[in-house]
Each structure stands twice: as structure tokens, then as C-alpha cells.
Amino acid sequence: MATKKKMTLKFYQNLGKLFYAIAAADMRVRDVEFNKLKELVKKHWLEVDVIEDAYHTDAAYQIEIVFDWLNDKENLNAKAGYNAFIKYKNEQPHLFTDDIKKLILKTAHAIAASFSGLNKSELIMLAKLDLELKKTRS
Fold first, then answer.
1. Alpha-carbon gap, residue 64 to 16, rounded angstroms
2. Residue 136: CB partners within 8 Å, gap ≥ 6?
3. Which of 21, 76, 99, 120 could potentially form a cystine with 82 if both were Cys, beta carbons 3.0 to 4.6 Å apart?
């Protein structure tokens, strides 16, 4: 998927916060959720841009790195991760094209559904995310 916008490391790091928040919405992050994220990063997010980090690794891997780091902290503060993403989205609305918004929602839904379907806390967060992304003009 080609985009006309230049993504940044912060963009991918904030996606990691968001996807962690989705997984942690029910106060527990399961391996299957992280595995689903890794699958989707490889399948979709690596194609978004050609930006690399300081180690010459595709910047999209920052999504996994931040998710894993937050999970290792065992913080489970889904609301903080979600709010950090929304703040970033509001500061950088030009990065959120229609294709990117669709991919964000697709990834978030897949992570939430990866462990025995969607629960109430995940559904609420996904609905809020959908509404927030609709506010963003690309």
C-alpha cells in the first residue's frame, strides 16, 4: 500500500501504544494478541512506508517494539496508551489517510478478536477509536 504522507518513528510508536491499549482493554494481554499483531505488521504495516530506524530496520517494527515494551512493564494502562495515540493523531492529522485509518481499524479489530472474540471493554474502545478516526480529515 503506497501512501503520499511521510511517516515517522513516532507514528509507528504511537500505533504500538494504541494496539497495546486494545489488547490490554480487558486488563490482560495474551500471547495470541501479540502474535496477531506481529502477523499483521509483517503482512500489512511493512508495506506502508520505507522509513527505517537508527538500526536500519523497517520503522513499522516500532509497533511491535513499543507493544512488547509496554507489555513487559505489565502496566496494563490501556487508557493511557489509547489517550497517547489520540493526542498524537490530533497533532498529526495529515498522516491519517483513509487507507491508514482503515488499516488501523483492521489491525485493532484483529487483535481484539484474536482471543475468544470481542469482549465489552474491547468493543467500547474499538467504537471510540472508530469515532476518533472519523473525525480526522486526511
1. 6
2. 89, 90, 93, 96, 101
3. 21
**pLDDT(2) > 60:** no
- Cβ proximity of 125 and 78 under 8 Å: yes
Structure-model confidence comparison of residues 83 and 26, the more confident one: 83
Domain boundaries, the chain: 9-135
Measure the CA dihedral 53/43/89/62, to 10°: -30
CB 26 within 8 A of CB 115: no
Q: How far apart are CA 101 and CA 65, in angstroms?
A: 21
Residues 6+ apart with CB under 8 A from 61: 12, 41, 53
How far is it, in rounded angstroms, from Cα 50 to Cα 59?
8
Question: Which residues contact residue 47 at a Cβ distance below 8 angstroms, ignoring those fewer than 6 apart?
Answer: 1
DSSP class of residue 48 equals: S
Rounded mean pLDDT of 51-56?
67
